[in-house]
Write a structure and sequence with these properties.
CATH superfamily of one domain: Ypt/Rab-GAP domain of gyp1p, domain 3
Number of helices: 25
Number of strands: 8
Shape: globular
CATH class of one domain: Mainly Alpha
Helix content: 40-55%
């Protein structure tokens, strides 16, 4: 349904998927069969193009989807989907499926930008086309629309956000303040375009907003996982700030304006990975246990070699799981990976990490000290990791995949995996701080701060 505007509520810019007469279509991770069908169709299309270009040659290897050089044409295709009027839930589902297919096939196109050209000065790209410099929010507009659509964020309230900010410092303000200055500090693109004050306001407002408990199992996710209803008392969660949430908020603030970033970030935390941000980080501990299990299923040799060196995922993958790989540079690749995760489920981040390990498996197997390599993985390449992740998901035992899909929000998984969480934050420090992208020095004061 189209969200009506009022004095305190505004539509999220570029309201995604004009829906009428149906309930808001919230975030639903597709089941594994639907994901594989999309991937298979994509691969068959690409292999057909390859065979046409190279008669007689055929490859069964997973080929990363090529990023289309026709950026504007692809953009128009996605735009047309957003502008389609949907009158039934079936039509909404079909539109979502088309967008997910485009994300899987080629990602969300981002218009070119020239740092040298002025806003009104055209420049010529290597392909010979003329372009104009595009402000960041306009450049990321399509991604912003898509994220909000996939997460079910159809309206934002400036008045509500302003009221939360006016409440001032929360009880965890000092913790927030101590973490934010290190957020993606080595990424110049982020640090020069996103102000620390914005990050502090979003995280502090989140703490004020989440005073009321919520239910861990969102209705759409319960349907996806085919879980029985659970007593509301056990499903009640209380949210606050934990270290690592600053990194989770960072991509939203880079992609969209502050108010929209706040509501989109809050929705993602509540419904996609609520157990990741509980005080003991229960969901993250399940994630590292599942990573070991997935690696063992996918590559027993590599798993055995790392285990022989006493290396478990808790030692090298804790920050990447907690932050959905947002602590892994570069930023533009993080955004592409999140396109995929929001389309098909944030639980797939665990398999993305497994995929990155398998990409460097030869180096790991030949290294007498693999931990050195694990601490400095190669730069993320989303369009290489994504198809390999889909391949891993296809071959994963169904029971294991189901646990993987449920672990960010269902505490039954911890019981099934026999994960005992005593002091989750200790593991965070043992693995290395998720915000340790800058030297652990005393936090500098903000201008004007006493």
């Amino acid at each position: 349904m189209r969200c009506s505007k009022s004095s305190d509520t505004t539509e999220a810019s570029g309201y995604p998927l004009q829906v009428t007469s149906v309930s808001v279509f919230n975030y639903i991770p597709l089941n594994i069969n639907a994901l594989i069908r999309m991937h298979k169709a994509t691969m068959e299309s690409q292999q057909g193009q390859q065979r046409h270009a190279n008669p007689g040659k055929r490859s069964d290897k997973i080929i990363p989807p090529a990023v289309s050089s026709q950026t504007e044409e692809c953009n128009d295709t996605i735009e047309s989907i957003f502008n389609t009027m949907n009158n039934t839930e079936k039509e909404v589902a079909e539109s979502l499926a088309k967008i997910r297919m485009l994300i899987l096939k080629e990602g969300i196109p981002v218009p070119l930008e020239s740092k040298q050209a002025s806003l009104h000065t055209p420049f010529t790209s290597p392909t010979g086309y003329q372009h104009y410099r595009i402000p960041r929010y306009e450049q990321q507009r399509l991604r912003s629309q898509t994220w909000k659509m996939l997460l079910g964020v159809y309206h934002v309230s400036f008045t509500e956000y302003a009221c939360l900010v006016k409440k001032g410092r929360s009880e965890v303000y000092d913790k927030v303040h101590d973490d934010t200055f290190r957020t993606l500090a080595t990424d110049r693109e982020f640090s020069t375009k996103v102000y620390e004050d914005s990050l502090i306001r979003v995280l502090n407002a989140f703490v004020w907003k989440e005073k009321e408990p919520t239910k861990k199992i969102h209705a759409s996710m319960q349907h996806f996982a085919e879980l029985p209803a659970r007593p509301s008392g056990k499903n009640s969660l209380q949210f606050t700030y934990v270290q690592g949430m600053n990194v989770l908020a960072a991509p939203f603030l880079y992609t969209m304006p502050e108010v929209e970033a706040f509501f989109t970030f809050s929705t993602m935390i509540r419904y996609c990975c609520p157990l990741y941000v509980q005080p003991l980080l229960q969901g993250v501990h399940c994630g590292v246990k599942l990573l070991d299990m997935c690696l063992q299923a996918a590559d027993p040799e590599l798993f055995g070699y790392l285990r022989g060196k006493n290396l478990t995922a808790e030692l090298y993958a804790f920050p990447s799981i907690l932050t959905l790989s947002a602590c892994t540079p570069p930023l533009d690749q993080i955004l592409q990976l999140w396109d995929f995760l929001f389309a098909f489920g944030v639980h797939l981040n665990v398999l993305c990490i497994v995929a990155r390990l398998m990409i460097i498996r030869i180096d790991l197997l030949q290294s007498p000290s693999p931990m050195k390599l694990l601490r400095t993985l190669p730069s993320l390449e989303a369009r290489v990791v994504i198809p390999l992740t889909v391949s891993l998901a296809r071959d994963l035992p169904p029971a294991l995949y189901k646990q993987l899909a449920r672990h960010p929000y269902d505490d039954c998984v911890a019981e099934e995996l026999d994960v005992r969480v005593g002091s989750g934050i200790n593991s965070l420090y043992m693995a290395g701080s998720v915000v340790a992208v800058a030297p652990p020095v005393m936090r500098p004061k903000i201008l004007g701060e006493k």
